[in-house]
Amino acid sequence: MPASAMHWASIGGNVDTDAGGLKSVRYGVTREHIRQLKVVLTDGKLYKFGAKAVKSSSGYSLKDLIIGSEGTLGVVTEVTMWLYPTPRKSINALIPFPTLNDAIKSVPAILASGVVPTTVEFMGRKVIDLWEKYYNEKFSVDTGDGFILLRFDAFTDGELQAVATTKQFKSATPIVLDANSEEAKTIWKCREDLLLAIQKSTPKMNEVDICVPINHIPDVLDRVDELEKEIGMRIPNFGHAGDGNLHIYLCSDNMSDEEYKEKSDKVITELYKIAKALDGTCLVNMVLVMLEKIGSNGTMVKTILTY
């Protein structure tokens, strides 16, 4: 499955949310990997949508209506998936840049070079510093404030020239690593732990997922920097540069609940505005806020903010 959180997510959950993740640049989101679903609808009956056959193009694609419906149309009980063989060899390339904006601006050039990376991720020095602090580990590269992390599956040596296109965006020399090397594993561990590192740095946080055309990622990040100053809130972020999906986190730090709610409302409103203006989408993830409100007796506060 393409989703990145498979160590805590379920296949059914990926289907219900049509999840994407680190490898969606090459392999697409969950929808592209589903052949057939068995679903219990609201009448209590079990239905089968889709087919195991490669070609199944007759009639309505009810399977695709269920995928991403988040359980509102029925309960998925069985999933038949298309599987890919494990690549014979994979490599990673970590590319440092002077700024995060320089890093992001290189992504369209990488994708236009004719190669199809498996993964194109971005992260800045601020969130890496949090990972180093809360996981007591050291990132592999000391220089640069912005980084692009690439993974290539089933590549040719000629395709590695794609990383050379980043020179026009002030990149340092790319670090190319075998995917199974210890240094590569450390870099990916940092990327996978960024969410938890941010969570450890603040009493409460909320996530806003924004997805925009990749050439507009710098516009969103510039607006996030402005909002940090305007609103007075720490807003760390990282994300999938290859598909324009940004993970943006609103940290409460030393604010009262009232101040945090007020400032969160303002930030989320502004993020929704810029996502819409850039022909993108915006999703507010309430899960972390809800977890904060689970009482000692195990009950959960039912009040949920809607944006």
Automatic annotation (TrEMBL):
It comes from Lactobacillus gallinarum DSM 10532 = JCM 2011. InterPro entries: FAD-bd_oxidored_4_C, FAD-bd_PCMH, FAD-bd_PCMH-like_sf, FAD-bd_PCMH_sub2, FAD-linked_Oxase-like_C, FAD-linked_OxidoTrans_Type4, Oxid_FAD_bind_N. Keywords: FAD, Flavoprotein, Oxidoreductase. Residues 1-86 form the FAD-binding PCMH-type domain. One of its GO terms (molecular function) is oxidoreductase activity. This is Glycolate oxidase.
